[in-house]
Amino acid sequence: MLHRVKVSLKSSKDAVLRRSPASAPETRYEASLDVLDSLERRAQRVRTILQANEGAWKAILANMTDSVGSILRMFEATHPFHSTATETANIVSALEPHMQKIGLLRSLQPVHRQDESRPPLEGIQSVIAQIDEFLDKCKEMRKRASLYEERLKEVNYYLTKVEKLEATQKQDSDTRLDRNRMKLLEARQSAEDACNSFQLGVEMLERNKDVVFSRALIVYVSDQLAALKFEPLIEHEKELQDIMTEHGSLTSQKIDWSESPQMNLSNDRITQGVQGPGKTQSRFSPDASPLSASVDHSIQSSTPPPDFDPHELHEEHAPEAQPAREYA
């Protein structure tokens, strides 16, 4: 009779063990692990993009500084536009501190002592810090997942040991079997606790995801607009527009690549002074015919014309007789 009761209790315990209570935690573990993988991957992507945004703004600032500085060097210090270009360069140089203030760029903060509190981060930098905290929690959940896998190995170890003892028909195997069955139950309970802890942690991440990344979007857009709405630059742009208006809308003026009208006028006056009134056109004037057209290349005869008398030319140009000078 006692033997029958003992066999009945043994069969009932075997039935409890064979139901494999660890199968339910394993299913929940796999589902939670998929969620963790997705959250961590997307959070890393957002952080990378926000970090790249800082690099993009730095590149824009470097380009603006180089461009404005190069244009400034086109004007001498005495040029009327030099002061305007200098003011533009100063405003552009003030953009970086402005972006650091709103948190779009990281500021070079001095090293603080342990008893000094660091100033709170603003803007995108605060969002990146919050995402880093989110990723740290993901790492913590990875550790919980590793702990569950270790507990699961213990379950498999004792399960294998119990199966071997059950297959043994030795007299002392019952005591060892009962002891290992208890260890198997304890291992399964530890594994289930580890799985529950992991699952609760992933659910916590899933809830906080909405807060972290909705704030990331809002702050990102706000910081971009705040950088574009830099008040000194907007006011200076109005001044530049006024300058263009005063000078007859510089943007609509066409560039005249012809020579200066003043230079042409002075050349015309010089040409007129050389020619004088009633004289023939100079061959060096713009309207003169080519030099080759003003030269007669025909061969002329050395024989003088028939009506030409060389004695007339001599008599006509003979010097007059000078009166004799009287010397005292």
TrEMBL record:
<dbReference type="InterPro" id="IPR027267">
    <property type="entry name" value="AH/BAR_dom_sf"/>
</dbReference>
<feature type="compositionally biased region" description="Polar residues">
    <location>
        <begin position="261"/>
        <end position="284"/>
    </location>
</feature>
<feature type="compositionally biased region" description="Polar residues">
    <location>
        <begin position="291"/>
        <end position="302"/>
    </location>
</feature>
<protein>
    <submittedName>
        <fullName>Uncharacterized protein</fullName>
    </submittedName>
</protein>
<feature type="coiled-coil region">
    <location>
        <begin position="124"/>
        <end position="151"/>
    </location>
</feature>
<keyword id="KW-0175">Coiled coil</keyword>
<feature type="compositionally biased region" description="Basic and acidic residues">
    <location>
        <begin position="308"/>
        <end position="319"/>
    </location>
</feature>
<feature type="region of interest" description="Disordered">
    <location>
        <begin position="261"/>
        <end position="328"/>
    </location>
</feature>
